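LacI family DNA-binding transcriptional regulator: structure tokens wanted.
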Amino acid sequence: MEKVTLKQLAAELNLSTSTVSRALQDSYQIGAETKSRVLQLARRLSYVPNPHASSLGSRRSKTISVVIPEVTDSYFAQAINGIEAVAQERGYHVLIYLTHERLQQEQEILKEFQGGRVDGVIMSISAETTSSVHMRGLLAQQVPLILFDRAIEQVQTPTVLTNDLESSAQATWHLIERGCTTILFLSYFRNLSIGQARLAGYRQALQEAGLPFQPELVVDCGLDDESNLQLIREVLQKQAHTNGIIATAEGLTLSVYQACSELHLGIPADIKVVCFSNSRSAAILNPPLTTVVQPAFETGQAAARLLFKSLKNKNAVSASDSQVLPSKLVVRQSTGG
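Answer:
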């Protein structure tokens, strides 16, 4: 049986091939009635599109990119799963790029995308990112960009974030309600909006509870586990009355547990611990860890849907479409649950 072509569909419908092609791609430029006619005929004649030809005609690569700082964090792994679930429904491939928390790497990746390598980008910025110049260059080439988890206010593009201030305040209140009066706050990249929001939530809860904010109890941690362990150990030795810890990154969990073990501090008897973490291993630690769990998969899905909405119609999405999704406090034995 001879393969039905786009030209044959167009001739039978008395339409141009470009109109038929756009209708098959569900373009906003084509009316619902015309789309229906095209799709009905395509089904009746068993039309099979040529993906290579359609991508050339539309100048689409059928590929999107996800740019993230790392993959060791289970949050980003789950977010990628959410993005891929949406992309696969639409017949798109997903390329993963890592910045390793370096601005230069992020700049080079986005510059490469300006040549049309991908149709759109979903990104969580690096720890070193303080400027959006390289992002504006990408947008100037009409490549849609959606930011998630970590964002920067200088660029007007949609974001999908979690309620970091509120969830940090909730975690702090949880410790206060469990009898903690001196709470160590382990900050992670305080220069990022996400770090600032979590610190603000901690301070807000202390103020509401009538407890003093003590700057010496805020510790800026980084990427090196050994350095983090040393910092935590030293502050716990200096602040002997500390009876609660909030760790704002999953990667700090083991350093907290190890420091407490080395200093013979029992969890939760001597000190209670909450960590922002999406790791399933939190439930099998000794003791099981109370966590602030972010909706990582749902965040990835939401970011991908915004991106594909923008790919369908570049004027359909703006910064006003940004979303904030709620995190969840899961109480376990590390706080006496």
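Residues 72 and 187 are 18 Å apart (CA to CA). Residues 63-162+296-326 form a domain with the Rossmann fold fold (CATH 3.40.50.2300).

Cheers.
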